[in-house]
Write a structure and sequence with these properties.
This is Alpha/beta hydrolase. The chain is an alpha/beta fold. It is built from nine helices and eight strands. It has two domains: about 190 residues, Rossmann fold (3-Layer(aba) Sandwich), CATH 3.40.50.1820; about 35 residues, no CATH class. About 40% of the residues lie in helices and about 20% in strands.
Length: about 240
């Protein structure tokens, strides 16, 4: 593991990262999803794509990269892009899982790999809608502290800055961002994914004009079982 400091908009970020095949020139950059970290992505893909330098990054606020600021997805893209410039990365391939897929899309690499990516708005279950509505009422009444009781366990463990960041990014409509990507897209999805459902993947495929689409048995982390096949398809599909 290594660490590098990046300064963006008068904010300092200490980014934790790992390199695999560090002497190679063409890069395979991998971005994790919300609440995840580089170790999960490294576990999946480090045995494959042996002709590439792998760059696994803990984005700010995750893994071993801290964050004290309220950020947007665009901020994350700026931070990761600046970090990659520090490593002299050619950004040949950038892969992103879930939230990381949105960040990867904004960086606009030559080859974009999306793994059950977020960014398509889906209908929320009724119980979630009711919690959101009730929380808004309590906030309007000046009872913001009570709303913490309605947060999920994972959300409740976030710092206030990361919770505010989460609220910034969780319900973004990335339709136009996907539609604007004009390079080479490769989309992979879990058929039993309940976090970002299969129809969302199919919609992203329809939005990215030059893209392929493959689905696999599995949930939101389907790639852990199918990384070998996904890697082979990436190797065969890059430009």
């Amino acid at each position: 593991m290594a660490q590098k400091s990046i300064n963006i908009d008068n904010k300092k970020f200490d980014i934790s990262y790992d390199l695999v095949n560090p002497s190679l020139k063409n890069d395979f950059v991998v971005l994790h999803g919300w609440g995840s970290n580089k170790e999960i992505m490294k576990q999946a893909f480090s045995p494959y794509l042996k002709d590439f330098r792998h760059i696994y990054i803990d984005m700010p606020g995750f893994g071993k990269s801290s964050n004290d600021y309220v950020l947007t997805t665009s901020d994350y893209a700026k931070i990761v892009d600046a970090f990659l410039k520090e490593l002299n990365s050619n950004k040949k391939i950038i892969a992103g899982h879930s939230f990381g897929g949105k960040v990867a899309t904004l960086i606009n690499p030559d080859n974009l790999v999306l793994l059950s990516t977020a960014g398509i708005l889906e209908e929320k279950p009724l119980d979630v809608k009711l919690k959101i509505k009730f929380s808004k009422i309590l906030n309007a009444l000046g009872l913001k502290g009570i709303t913490k009781a309605f947060r999920s366990k994972d959300v409740n463990q976030m710092s206030e800055s990361m919770y505010s960041t989460f609220k910034n990014v969780v319900d973004e409509d990335f339709t136009n961002s996907f539609k604007s990507y004009k390079k080479n897209g490769m989309i992979f999805w879990g058929e039993e994914d309940k976090a970002t459902t299969l129809p969302s993947g199919e919609k992203i495929h329809s939005l990215i004009q030059n893209s392929s689409f493959n689905s696999y048995k599995g949930d939101h982390y389907f790639f852990l079982k199918h990384a070998n096949d996904i890697s082979q398809k990436i190797e065969n599909g890059i430009i």
